[in-house]
Design goal:
Chain lengths: 295, 394
């Protein structure tokens, strides 16, 4: 089981000839992911270690039957790359690129609503990607710290996700799937999408959710947990010590207030999640042990 | 990126949103000359307003906005405001030094409204927010009378429609004769927002004058940092006096740094883990001196730059390095830390926690370096240790 990616996922890498694209295309392939095509406009006909490169995503899909895309295209061109992937009917797009203008992502999200007739999922942007240990990794999560098991992880962060995975693996608790949904204010996949999928996945017995300051996605997730999630959810929210009005690295990690509504403080989020029945740990060092006490 | 009111108004004017006549001045002489041009008999204004230009709201409360009815009064106002250390509810107790003032025509106010466009993160769409109660902080309006705030959302596929703008205009209770001007104003705002990659466009107040026209009396604009690469003309508006110099320096070398009030310097890879590290220091009884994300790679160059920036803060009593080695291996990171520490001659103890790929080898190299680097295994243990050494109980 697990969610969204498995042994049948066939990946095309957009931006495969850039330095990050090359490095991670190789790393994903080495992990065991079916990396079957690459796209770099103008380099069609060449290859990377035998992975055929195409000029267009449509061309790659037609020739190889790819059903997922991993995007390493630079920020200025990334939205166009995602839209191209949507148009070529892959069912999953994972965008690692950081720094895409919000205006571009608003258009992308609108395009996803139509989905050009098909259901497409975008994970990211500005995220570490997704991994189902032992089957498929799309993105930059270090595969060697993961182990297969029964905990689903969803997180807005990168290295903090690795920290959580590592804590679990060291305690002998493996993962079904780990999803980094990214730190941008407008993203393709949110906590609720992941909670819904983990709740439906029979292999997943417990869920780790890692949020951070900014926006109201955690509060919305709390409402969803209360109404629909029966599996135990362990939560950590980063940024209790973050000052208001300062962007903490991620574009979306800012305690804002003002015209947009909610303040987005860690305290507000933690109390909403506690009220929804989630187990909130104040210490990021205790994510693993908290799961251990539950399972 | 934040900009000044006068720059925000320049943007609005470009998109056909009416703003008061006025100019920016950096000296009392300039301010006086502008006031003379605007005031009768040279100009048409009965009064001018001298407005301090700093990146913080609540300027009026701190005495940064003054009305003048003659050139002499304008000169006195400019003398008082220029160079003052302006303290407002948003500046903190130290305040900000006023280096420029905006000199504008006075406006005969009949009614004040609020109008803004910003991102609704939950919907992934732009929201237009309006209120018949302008001139005060929108948070206050939201608390006191939430029903007075009217919102509408813009479908990015079709854009803002006139009926939406009309609906808001009528909702504000504008006279019929002003609704068309409101529609034009809001369409201009939306166009400005999209074309300039804004993240907030706020007019507070949007004034209905006694003459029945609409004018943006104050304006606040922030730009999406990720969109700045396609707007060099806006990037040029950046006022370095308003930015933390250390934060700017960090940015130039590719580090994300935010200074805080505590005594424990932090160096972490990844923004989420960096926040988590600050939080756990607090849980252990310490206070973080900064947020610092060295990026996923944590190369020797970046570690060296990060050390330099952290050590510039005289409050720092100890440093915690928390690196999760994924792609980048911990032994390589340890070599980088050792090289940087040797070069810089550390004045404070450094607790290092390396986790992930080749962590043990990394720790072994740190321990054998002969430098004041203290390798610690666990996350909580590392935080406790750095809190202890910062207090002198190492």
């Amino acid at each position: 089981m697990a969610i969204w990616v498995d042994n049948d996922t066939r990946v095309v890498v957009q931006g495969i000839t850039g330095s990050h694209g090359q490095f991670h295309a190789r790393a994903c392939k080495a992990y065991g992911t079916q990396v079957i095509a690459g796209v770099t406009p103008g380099k069609g006909g060449s290859d990377l270690d035998g992975i055929p490169i195409f000029d267009t995503v449509a061309g790659a899909v037609a020739k190889t039957g790819a059903n997922a895309s991993m995007v390493f295209v630079p920020a200025a061109f990334a939205a166009d790359a995602i839209l191209e992937a949507i148009d070529s009917k892959v069912s999953l797009i994972v965008c690692i690129t950081e720094g895409i203008p919000v205006a571009d992502m608003i258009r992308v999200r609108r395009a996803m609503e139509n989905g050009s007739g098909t259901r497409v999922r975008l994970i990211g942007p500005n995220c570490p990607g997704i991994i189902t240990p032992g089957e498929c990794k799309i993105g930059i999560i270090p595969g060697q710290i993961c182990a297969r098991g029964s905990v689903g992880i969803v997180s807005r962060s990168g290295t903090l996700t690795y920290e959580a995975i590592d804590q679990l693996t060291r305690l002998g608790l493996g993962q079904t799937t780990c999803v980094g949904i990214g730190g941008d204010p407008v993203a393709g996949t949110d906590f609720i999408d992941c909670l819904k999928a983990f709740q439906a996945d029979q292999e997943t017995k417990a869920i780790v959710m890692i949020g951070e300051i900014g926006g109201t996605a955690e509060e919305e997730a709390a409402a969803y947990i209360k109404a629909y999630v029966t599996k135990p959810v362990v939560v950590y929210i980063a940024g209790v010590t973050a000052p208001p009005g300062k962007r903490m690295g991620h574009a979306g990690a800012i305690i804002a207030g003002g015209a947009s509504g909610g303040m987005g403080t860690a305290k507000e989020k933690m109390s909403a999640l506690r009220a929804a029945g989630a187990r909130v740990t104040e210490s990021p060092a205790e994510i693993g042990v908290t799961i251990k006490t539950i399972l | 990126m934040k900009v000044h009111e006068y720059q925000a108004k320049e943007l609005l004017k470009k998109y056909g949103v009416p703003v008061p006549n006025g100019k920016i001045a950096a000296s009392v002489d300039e301010a006086t000359t502008i006031a003379r041009e605007l005031l009768k008999p040279t100009g048409t204004a009965d009064s001018v307003v001298i407005k301090a230009q700093i990146h913080a709201g609540g300027r009026g409360k701190g005495g940064g906005i003054r009305l003048a009815k003659s050139v002499e009064e304008a000169m006195a106002a400019a003398q008082a405001v220029l160079g003052m250390q302006l303290v407002t509810p948003q500046t903190g107790p130290v305040g900000r030094k006023v280096k420029k003032v905006l000199v504008e025509e006075g406006t005969a106010i009949a009614k004040e409204h609020y109008l803004a466009i910003t991102l609704d993160r939950a919907r992934g769409r732009l929201a237009v927010i309006s209120s018949a109660e302008g001139g005060m902080e929108i948070e206050e309006v939201a608390k006191r009378s939430h029903e007075k705030i009217v919102r509408t959302w813009i479908d990015p596929a079709v854009g803002l429609q006139s009926y939406q703008a009309r609906g808001l205009g009528f909702g504000l209770g504008l006279p019929v004769t002003a609704v068309n001007a409101f529609v034009k104003c809001l369409r201009g705002l939306h166009k400005a927002y999209m074309e300039a990659d804004c993240s907030l466009l706020e007019i507070n107040p949007l004034v209905l004058t006694k003459g029945g026209s609409l004018i943006a009396l104050d304006a606040k604009v922030t730009f999406d940092d990720s969109g700045l690469f396609r707007h060099p003309e806006i990037e040029a508006w950046r006022d370095l006096d308003e930015e933390d110099p250390v934060e700017m320096e960090a940015k130039e070398v590719g580090l994300n740094y935010v200074s805080l009030q505590g005594t424990i310097g932090c160096m972490v890879n990844g923004a989420g883990l960096a926040m988590a590290t600050m939080d756990i220091i607090k849980l252990c009884g310490g206070e973080p001196a900064n947020f610092l994300d060295v990026g996923g790679g944590a190369t020797t160059e970046q570690v060296t730059s990060a050390f330099k920036i952290i050590l510039r803060d005289p409050k720092v009593r100890a440093i915690l390095i928390n690196i999760f080695g994924g792609i980048m291996k911990c032994d390589v990171i340890a070599d980088g830390i050792i090289a940087a520490a040797k070069e810089l001659q550390m004045r404070v103890p450094v607790v290092v926690r390396l986790q992930g790929t080749n962590a043990e080898e990394g720790r072994r190299r740190l321990a054998g370096s002969g430098l004041p680097l203290i390798p610690v295994d666990g996350f909580a243990q590392a935080a406790q240790r750095v809190v202890d050494v910062a207090k002198g109980n190492g």
